[in-house]
Structures are given as structure tokens and as C-alpha cells.
Amino acid sequence: MRAFDYVRATDTREAVRLLADDPEASCLAGGTTQLDLMKDGVLQPPRLIDITRLPLHGIERRDESLHVGALVTMEELAADTTVAERLPMVRESLLLGASVQLRNMATIGGNLLQRTRCRYFRDPTVPECNKRAPGSGCAAVQGAARMHAVLGASERCIALHASDLAVALVALDALVHIQGPTGSRTVPLTEFYLTADVSPERETVLEHAELITGVEIPLPPPAARSGYLKVRDRTSYEFALASAAVQLVLDDGTILEARVALGGVGTKPWRAHAAEHLLTGAPATTATFTEAAEATMQDAWTVPGTAFKVPLARRTLVRELQTVSGVTA
Amino acid sequence: MTRVTNASRRDTDDLPAVIERVVTLTVNGRPHTLRLDTRVTLLDALRDRLGLTGTKKGCDQGACGACTVHLDGRRVLACLTLAAQAEGRDVTTIEGVSGTDGHPHPVQQAFMEHDGFQCGFCTPGQIMSAMALMAEGRTGSDEEIREFMSGNLCRCGAYPNIVAAIREAAARGGHDARL
Ligand SMILES: Cc1cc2nc3c(=O)[nH]c(=O)nc-3n(C[C@H](O)[C@H](O)[C@H](O)COP(=O)(O)OP(=O)(O)OC[C@H]3O[C@@H](n4cnc5c(N)ncnc54)[C@H](O)[C@@H]3O)c2cc1C
Ligand code: FES
Ligand code: FES
Question: Which residue stretches, if any, does this entry annotate as coiled coil (chain A) (predicted)?
Fold first, then answer.
């Protein structure tokens, strides 16, 4: 690991200034992505700004939205009473991710910004990686692909965005609050991520020296039902092969409102607008669910190792639509 | 921890090879002031500088749980925590869990009675995790124990006995056990 200077910031504006002063500095939250990739030699910042002591640890309910500080941990958010009562999909996506030890360290801001687990990205001895070295190619496309993406993917890059939480949050139209050297801005999470077929090397709209200060989650209507299904190679402590976040408002067998996002398949957390469009106003039946799932996966771009994900993701979504609606016919 | 890679570096690398920092760590109730390379993890500081080798290094990348310690009473991975990040926090390691009278902690006792190990390498991490599990109130069923202990891998596959040990420690009132 390359030597680095460690600076502990105590004030958000100071942290932003420290980052702005050094174009190569990185911030350190829970460290579960950052230190991991520094050990691998993928990230080599000369300076780490530890932001964990910044006053961004609160969870606050304001009317019908939940404001979550960027440094709230995954375990803390999962334990929140509003989350338990009103946001079951968020709670499930948190508790099905990583392990308790990691969730005690990992922050909400860091979770949204976690980097891909693609083994070629994580190994700097592999020369071809358009994320690490723009223009060098993509070793995964020709190589051993499995835990890779099929939506927002192309021969340029098939790296998966592996967050579970972000899948639930894109479905809910969460907002990201950002503070930078020139002020604050708010970006909808659905517009926060860029896809790897467009820009493998740039994953989000966040600029250098911009900090996520918090996430705002609009609370669903009380009549909404929701859930998160994660399908993986082992029962626990594993990344998703496919996952589905579903929220429905039903009235007498008709779907009044649908929110759907998929994980384990996209180069970004994948909001399934096409599925929502088909579901809204339609009868809650397995035929409708199947049509919605097919529409979502129709633009998939696969390599031999990832072809299985198309039917898997379809079935995952149909299953979760059935579970949330209670309709299996 | 240092690895040689062919990753591109700045040509004008004006950083010194080592950057040090004085860090005060409170481990098992005792403060220690150390001069450490900023790269030193809590795990390496415990093992190599404080001689507390009970905390194990398995993967060194957050995947196995062998390095589990408590930070302000919560279980975390010492291999992905910089020593500097633990400053001002209470660190508890396996060396700090037995009673002042030298008696093992009830969870340690239960692991011995149920043979919750084979080679023993994962055991300190399992015990630190199990103590936290009880404090978290997640010992309601074997299924719950397995799910919330899933961050601790055991190469020897001692899982059934580990679950049995935790079940018993919880039944004996482990919720009130010292954390
Ligand atoms: C073994 C293992 C298993 C895992 N399994 C899962 C899983 O199943 N599901 C899942 O969703 N995740 C999983 N993860 C990923 C984990 O959730 C993320 O690593 C974690 O959420 C990152 O948060 P952090 O606070 O540790 O971020 P850090 O590692 O500290 O930071 C991550 C990145 O974000 C930047 N950053 C952090 N906070 C901010 C901020 N507020 N503003 C601007 N930039 C910031 C950092 O500079 C860094 O580049 C797993 C990780 C490991 C190691
Ligand atoms: S050594 Fe820390 S998780 Fe394996
Ligand atoms: S007892 Fe050998 S690894 Fe668990």
C-alpha cells in the first residue's frame, strides 16, 4: 500500500476544503470499500480525509420523509423505528447485505458509493479495465464473468453495482444531499448514477471534493406494501446474483401504484420504469408480472457467463411481485 | 500488507515512504500510546505492536470475521479499520473478555463445553461475534443465530457446535453477560 497522510476532519466545510485542496485525496468513512481497495493497490490516494467524526450521524423524520445522515451505519438505519414500520424494503435490503460486523462499519453514504466487486477491476495486474485505465478494454467481457451486470452493460464494461440498499432507494425516489466547495445541491438517486456503457470510469455525478451529507427517503403511502428479494449463491453473507425491490399499492386486485428496481444485474442500481408502466393500472396477476419482468430484461446485454442472469432476474422479479401482492395465480 | 503492483503511480511521487502518527488506543480498558505508520490497521497494531495475538488475521480483507473485535461495544472488523480510526474509542479484544478472576467468559465456557471449534483459528472472532450477537438480542432461534453469525467463517466447519454453544450461552442468561 502506498503511504498516505491521514487527516481527521471535524467539520463538514473543513472536510470539503481539505478534499478541494488535493485533487488526489479521498475521504474515508467506514473504510470497507476504501481500505479494501487500497490494500489491493487499486486505489492509491496520497491523503485520506477521515470523515467519520463529522456531525452527519442523525436520523430524523420530517413529515413524510426520513432524513438520514451520510455517516449513519447500515445497522443503525436497519434498527430505526420509522424504517421498521414504514420502509420494510429498505430494512430488508440492509439486513441482507454484508455481515453485522461490516454493517456496523459501513455508512449509508459509503454504501451508495461502494465500488464494483469485479475481480478484474480489483486486480491492478490486469491491464484491461476501462474503469481503472480508460481505453484499455474490459477483461471481464472475454474472461470469467458471473457476478457481472447485464443491464447498462456493453463490451466497454460489465462491472456490477453491488449495493442492495441503493436498489431499494432508487425504487423509492430517494434524494442525495451533497455539499461541495461552491455550495450544496440535491440530486435524485435515479439521476445520481451513470451506466458503464456510457462512462465506465465515472460512476456517479459526484465531483471531486463533493461530500454526500445525507439521503432523504420519501415515506410510502400507508397502504403500500413492499419487500426486497435477494437471490445468491449462498444463503447469507453474499452479494446478489439478482434481487428485486418491489412496492405496490393495490385496490381490489388492481395495481394502483408500482415501484420496481433490480439489483445484481445492473451497472447501476436499476430502476425498472418499463415494468412500473406495465403494472400500473393492470390487474395483479402472474401474467401481468411476467410481462413486466420480460419488458425489464429485454435490453439485457450478455456474455456467456452472464446469460443465466436474464431468466434468473425475470423469475426473481415475478416471485417478489407475487410475494408483495399476495397473488400467485 | 504491502503489495507490489504495476498500478500507475504519480511520476513525481513526493510522498515519503512512511508517514507516521502518534495514536493512543484504549484496549481492554488500558491506554497505549504508539507511533504508527498511518497504514497500520487496528488488527496489525493489536497483534504486532501490543502483542495481543488472540485477534486473528484470516483474509485481511473483510471477508472472514477472524479479526472481529468490539469498538465502543459493537462488533467490527479490525482488518478494515485503521488504527487511527480507533483513537478515542474503546477497543475490546478476546484477551479482555474473561473475568478479572481469570474465569472464562460464559460464551468461552460454552464454546469449550460444546467443542465449538476444531483448529481454533476462527474461535476468537466467533466468540467476539457471539457476545455481540447476544447483546443485540439475536439469539431467538438457531436460524437467527446462523444468519447473524454469518460474518464469521469456519474452515473446519464447526458450525453445528458453534450454534449449540451460543444457544446454550443465551439460554443461561447470556443477554446479561458482560460485553
Ligand atoms: C465482504 C464484503 C461483503 C459485502 N457485502 C455486501 C452486500 O451484500 N450488499 C451490499 O450492499 N454491500 C456489501 N458490501 C459493501 C459494503 O456495504 C460497502 O463497502 C460499504 O457500504 C461502504 O461504506 P463505507 O462507509 O465503509 O465506505 P468507504 O469504504 O469508507 O467509502 C466508499 C467510497 O465512498 C467514498 N465516500 C464515503 N462516504 C462518502 C461521503 N459521505 N461523501 C463522499 N464520498 C464518500 C469514499 O471516498 C470511498 O471512495 C460488502 C463489503 C464487503 C467487504
Ligand atoms: S481478517 Fe478481517 S475479516 Fe478476515
Ligand atoms: S475451528 Fe478451524 S476455522 Fe473454525
Answer: none
Q: Where residue B45 sits, what CATH number does that domain have?
A: 3.10.20.30
Contacts of A242 (CB under 8 A, 6+ apart): A231, A262, A263, A264, A265, A309, A312, A313, A316
Write down which residue in B51, B72, B96 finishes a domain: B96
The larger pLDDT score, comparing residue B102 to residue A56, is at A56
Please check whether residue B4 lies inside any domain of the structure: no
C-alpha cell, A108: 449509508
Of B96, B116, B132, the last residue of a domain is B96
For residue B112, tell me if it sits in a domain. Answer: yes
For residues A324 and A227, the answer to whether their CB atoms sit within 8 Å is yes
For chain A, residues classed under CATH 3.30.43.10 are: 1-53
Q: Which atom of ligand 3 is closest in space to residue B157's alpha carbon?
A: 4
Of A46, A50, A100, the CB nearest to B85: A50
Whether A39 and B37 lie within 8 Å, measured CB to CB: no
Do residue B9 and residue A2 have CB atoms under 8 angstroms apart? yes
Please state the ipTM of this predicted complex.
Answer: 0.96
What pLDDT sits at residue A218?
A: 98
Q: How many CA atoms lie within 13 Å of A299's alpha carbon, on the beta-carbon side? A: 13
pTM for the structure as a whole: 0.96
For A225-324, give the CATH class: alpha beta
Centre of ligand 1 to C-alpha A111, Å, is 4
Determine the angle formed by the axes of helices B123-136 and B106-113, rounding to 10 degrees: 120
Atom of ligand 1 nearest to the CA of A70: 41
d(CA B63, CA B77): 9
B22 contacts B35 by C-beta, under 8 angstroms: yes
Residue B12 has pLDDT above 50, yes or no: no
In a domain, B176, yes or no: no
Instruction: Tell me which H or E stretch contains A291.
Output: helix A286-297
CATH code assigned to A1-53: 3.30.43.10
How far is the C-alpha of A139 from the C-alpha of A133, rounded, in Å? 12
Residue range of the domain that includes B157: 106-171
| Chain B nearest-CA residue for A121 | B7
Residues of B with CB under 8 A from a CB of A: 1-3, 5-10, 15-19, 21, 37-39, 41, 60-62, 65, 68, 71, 74-77, 80-82, 84-85, 129, 132-133, 136, 146-148, 150-152
Name the average pLDDT for chain A.
97
pLDDT in tens, A234-290: 999 999 999 999 999 999 999 999 999 999 999 999 999 999 999 999 999 999 999
Dihedral sign (CA A28, A160, B57, B39): negative
Rounded to the nearest angstrom, the gap between the alpha carbon of residue A299 and the centroid of all alpha carbons in its chain is 20
